[in-house]
Write a structure and sequence with these properties.
The complex is a heterodimer of chains A (246) and B (410). With 246 residues, chain A is α/β, with parallel strands linked by helices. Chain A has 7 helices and 10 strands. A 6-stranded mixed sheet of chain A has the order 6-7-8-3-9-10, with helices on both faces. Chain A has a 4-stranded antiparallel sheet with strand order 2-1-4-5, covered by helices on one side. In chain A, helix 3 (113-124) packs across helix 4, helix 3 packs parallel to helix 5 (157-169) and helix 4 (128-141) crosses helix 5. Chain B is of the alpha+beta class. Chain B is 58% helix and 17% strand. Chain B has helices spanning 3-16, 18-55, 76-80, 86-95, 130-134, 146-150, 160-167, 206-209, 216-224, 244-258, 270-313, 315-323, 328-365, 373-399, 403-408, and strands spanning 61-66, 99-114, 117-126, 138-141, 155-158, 176-179, 182-190, 212-215, 233-238, 265-269. In chain B, a hairpin with a 2-residue loop joins strand 2 (99-114) and strand 3. The two termini of chain B are 26 Å apart. Classes of the chains: A alpha/beta (246), B alpha+beta (410). Chains A and B meet through helix 2 and helix 3 of A and helix 1, helix 12 and helix 15 of B.
């Protein structure tokens, strides 16, 4: 991976949330998943978002990943306000600026490894020849160049997660968003995947790890805790839920 | 996402789910087969009718017949009219400008005698135009010529069967045939005419092989002695098919006037008759057409249901695709391409099956059916539009899935 992957100069906030809330309409009662979140993430930063289930951690990740939009507040991604973009524009941002890595890998089971990695470029309208070259290069970087024609089911969990990372990186996004990326892996394999994220971080990618696992979070330079829809304490802390409720 | 890649994805889905695809295509196969069969039968029927009529002189022909009055007590005017006459023929030749030939036929039963034959036969009094009007020419010798008409010659031209009947295997040309008491010289034998609507049927044109033809003038002077020179019917050849209707109207006008304002004749436009016969045949076609359309609708609903079930299995996949940048339209296209692919497979399988249907039916009727570009077009249009129509709902449902919920879906 080259450091050129992140287009923003290091240190500038690539992600900037201001008083972001999210309210879900759940039948008769409204669920306040986020109750006013302010968050800046600098380009090239490595950050972990932690929190128990139901804390709003997933909602925050969805909003940061442009899978969802805030109910109120502002979100700027690399200088673009994305709070009120159309579905079509959000799809384009997900395609170009964000790489997702999921706990369950989420590879398409009937497509070859190569095709899985090509997929984001298909949606970006990249031509076939260039797609294959870039997909092979991305697979090479995660050490799976020789597995290109295989199906996901022929690979181990760790290998599948590497394919998912190759897929996430292939469009050169500014942000890599990983949701419990080691959740389905044994400790040793999980460590290898986290080492890969560390390496990507060193190369200048902005890496956001969403996890409930302290050991995973320890790989990030900054840890943010979400409790009850709010960021629980000041920046940089790993000190637990000691923050005062606002 | 390009169409090409959507097709690749769809092909994979179809290949992986072979059994499901077979179920999905059954209705479409039957529906397309039925529609192809309709087209095949229509084509075959039309071809046959056209070739039958062209054997008898084509579609540019109008037949004028005597029609007996319906009323039991006839008016003086009706009694005064003698029906179609030679005079009408001459008037039509003069006044109907679309007519290229006006050919009268007068026919009376008379005793026919050769050394080996004696029987009453219908003797036709004709003019040289008969050949062109019926597309019917001599195989040996010659037909009547204008001279025969002018001089009321005692010459006779025989149909192929008549020649055999009267003279056995001998060559009849130059021999004498006695009609009534007069000897007629055989100057020609007509080409044999054959047309079989169904295999094993009787020859539908055998009546043409059984003619005994003499100059119409000879018939009047030597046998009927008819001062009105009545004719049994008149064939009018029109310059082009498009003028059939116009010519028929002109003929009616002329005859109506000459017959003192009573309609003791009928005018048949052959093109109209062909159309009538086709519309009768359509009752049969409509059954198939309805079967086909019902099958396509049922097949389409099956496809829609299976696509919806398949979507339920693939909600997570849709979520993943959206997460990595698929727009709604990309997802919709993917599902739509898949359902169109499935129905196209049904259409491809339905085409030969429809051919078999058509051939099975035409074998019973003895009609030949061939595959035509129209049939192929029917199968393509029917199958693709079924896939499109019934694929739309699942496709839009997939496109509208919320990515967050889709990703969470277990």
């Amino acid at each position: 991976m080259t450091a050129a992957a992140a287009p923003m100069p290091a240190g500038m906030p690539v992600i900037s949330l201001r008083d972001v809330t999210k309210v879900y309409d759940s039948g008769d009662s409204a669920v306040h998943a986020l109750r006013g979140v302010d968050l800046d993430i600098a380009s090239g930063e490595s950050i972990a978002i932690m929190g128990p289930s139901g804390s709003g951690k997933s909602t925050l990740m969805h909003i940061v990943g442009c899978l969802d939009v805030p109910s109120s507040g502002e979100y700027e991604l690399a200088g673009t306000p994305v709070s009120r973009l159309s579905n079509r524009e959000l799809a384009r941002i997900r395609n170009q600026r964000i790489g997702f890595v999921f706990q369950a890998y989420n590879l398409l089971p009937r497509a070859s490894i190569l095709r899985n990695v090509e997929l984001p470029m298909m949606y970006a309208g990249v031509g076939r020849a260039e797609r294959q070259t870039r997909a092979r290069a991305a697979l090479g970087k995660v050490g799976l160049a020789d597995r290109a024609p295989h199906l996901p089911s022929q690979l181990s969990g760790g290998q599948r997660q590497r394919v998912a990372i190759a897929r996430a990186l292939v469009n050169n996004p500014s942000i890599l968003l990983a949701d419990e990326p080691t959740g389905n892996l044994d400790t040793q394999t999980g460590r290898e995947i986290l080492a890969l994220f560390d390496e990507l971080g060193h190369q200048g990618h902005t890496v956001i790890l969403v996890t409930h696992d302290m050991n995973v979070a320890a790989h990030a330079k900054r840890v943010i805790r979400i409790v009850d829809g709010r960021i629980a304490d000041g920046p940089g802390g790993e000190q637990g839920d000691t923050g005062t409720p606002a | 996402m390009t169409l090409r890649e959507s097709v690749v994805d769809a092909l994979v889905e179809v290949r992986v789910n072979r059994g499901r695809t077979v179920l999905q295509t059954l209705g479409v196969i039957l529906g397309v087969a039925s529609l192809v069969a309709v087209q095949g039968l229509t084509d075959a029927g039309r071809r046959q009718a056209v070739s039958f009529f062209s054997e008898m002189g084509g579609l540019r022909k109008i037949l004028v017949l005597n029609k007996p009055a319906k009323e039991r007590v006839q008016s003086a005017r009706q009694l005064a009219s003698v029906g179609l006459t030679w005079g009408d023929v001459e008037a039509l030749r003069r006044e109907v400008k679309e007519a290229t030939r006006v050919d009268p036929i007068a026919s009376v039963p008379l005793m026919v005698r050769t050394p080996s034959y004696l029987k009453e036969r219908d003797i036709s009094g004709l003019t040289p135009d008969y050949q062109a009007v019926y597309n019917f020419y001599p195989a040996r010798g010659r037909f009547l010529i204008d001279d025969d008409l002018a001089s009321m010659s005692r010459v006779v031209v025989l149909g192929d069967s008549s020649a055999r009947l009267y003279f056995g295997n001998e060559d009849p040309i130059g021999k004498t045939l006695f009609i009534g008491d007069a000897g007629f010289r055989v100057v020609g034998v007509m080409r044999r005419k054959e047309f079989y609507f169904n295999e094993g049927d009787r020859n539908a044109l055998e009546w043409m092989n059984r003619v005994t033809i003499i100059p119409i003038t000879a018939l009047y002077t030597r046998f009927t002695g008819d001062p009105d020179r009545k004719v049994n019917y008149i064939n009018v050849m029109v310059d082009k098919v498009d003028n059939n209707r116009k010519a028929a109207e002109a003929i009616k006008t002329v005859l109506y006037r000459r017959h003192g304002g009573i309609q003791d004749f009928e005018v048949y436009n052959r093109e109209e008759r062909l159309r009538q016969e086709e519309s009768q045949g359509r009752v049969f076609d409509v059954t198939f057409m309805v079967t086909g359309i019902v099958s396509l609708i049922v097949g389409g609903i099956v496809i829609m249901n299976i696509m919806l079930a398949s979507l339920r299995d693939r909600i997570r996949e849709v979520g993943v695709r959206k997460a990595i940048g698929a727009r709604g339209i990309d997802v919709a296209l993917q599902f739509l391409v898949e359902s169109i692919l499935v129905t196209s497979i049904g259409g491809l399988a339905g085409l030969p099956l429809g051919m078999l249907f058509a051939n099975g039916i035409t074998a019973l009727l003895g009609q030949p059916a061939i595959i035509t570009p129209k049939m192929a077009a029917v199968s393509i249009i029917a199958s693709v539009s079924t896939g499109l129509v019934f694929g739309l709902y699942p496709a839009f449902k997939a496109a509208r899935l919320n990515p967050v919920e889709a990703l969470r879906y277990e």
